[in-house]
Amino acid sequence: MKSDVSLDFQFTNSIEQVWNALTDSDTLAKWIMENDFKPIVGHKFQFRTEPNEWWNGIVDCEVLKVDEPYSLSYIWASAGETTTVTWTLKEGSDGVIHLRLDQTGFSEETKARKGAIEGAKYSWTSMGDKLGKVLAEL
Q1: What dihedral angle (degrees, nearest 10) is formed by the CA atoms of 117, 9, 30, 127?
Q2: With contact defined as beta carbons under 8 Å apart, do 85 and 73 qualify?
Q3: pTM, full prediction
Q4: Which domains does the chain show, CATH number per domain?
Q5: What is the pLDDT of residue 1?
């Protein structure tokens, strides 16, 4: 299945540090949202933030795949849309960690809505920037 959102990030941290930033609940809270995440297949969790007039501030999730430290996948269900988020980590020959985000499964209605996919890309890019700042502090 072709990803609806695909983004690539590069970090000079170790693959273990990047993996930890993806799987440690406290670290996730620094760059995505407050959560009760655990890297256990089948674990249901939520990302939570302040609600607003358009959204209740809750993302319901379930861990689908954990392949430490190379791949993590979970369901991302929010505002009536259920997608799959997959993070893939690869270490380059130069020691740089390449982190890829793929989000799949947006409805045709959402894909057709002007700005919807672009909005998701913008949000993930912003979170990726925050992740870079979190990793830079290590």
Answers
A1: -20
A2: yes
A3: 0.96
A4: 5-136 (3.30.530.20)
A5: 63
